[in-house]
Design brief:
The chain is mostly helical. The protein is built from 4 helices and no strands.
């Protein structure tokens, strides 16, 4: 595999994983998290535990692929893409990960013990950090793809 093919595949993987996260985070932000308050206190503990288990199985591999392909882009960057754009993408991914570990995971850990409307509200509000970061990263990856496509044309 030549370097141009590798650069393209890494960029494509980064684009695909970023946009998968964009779709997932908007679904979670607008639909899923706000509905937590409607589950009911009796069923919530089991619901929250299942949410954490199932959503982790879905998002963890995609987040890892996005992170690794973002790092790889720093190493095998297509020539049409300036390094600062790759770094911007990396910063956005890091922001989503930091928010996940520092804000959303602790909120989920509290909610697994029982529904708390204040914690749920904090989860919904702080999740906007990830929603915006992932949306911006998706846009940045699209921009990088556009730069590569226009360089070919």
């Amino acid at each position: 595999m030549n370097s141009e093919t590798l650069q393209f595949l890494v960029l494509l993987l980064n684009f695909a994983s970023a946009w998968m996260m964009v779709g997932l985070i908007w679904l979670i932000q607008v639909v899923h998290y706000p509905l937590f308050s409607l589950v009911g206190r009796d069923a919530f503990v089991a619901y929250a535990a299942q949410h954490v288990r199932r959503i982790t199985m879905l998002v963890a591999p995609i987040m890892l692929i996005e992170l690794l392909s973002s790092i790889a882009l720093c190493i095998v960057r297509p020539p049409a893409v300036e390094i600062w754009i790759v770094i911007l993408g990396m910063v956005l991914v890091a922001l989503a990960w930091i928010s996940t570990w520092m804000l959303q995971i602790p909120a989920h850990e509290k909610l697994v013990s029982g529904f708390d409307s204040a914690v749920n509200l904090r989860l919904v509000r702080t999740n906007w950090i990830r929603t915006i970061a992932w949306t911006c990263h998706g846009i940045v990856t699209g921009w990088m793809c556009w730069m590569c496509l226009t360089a070919i044309a």
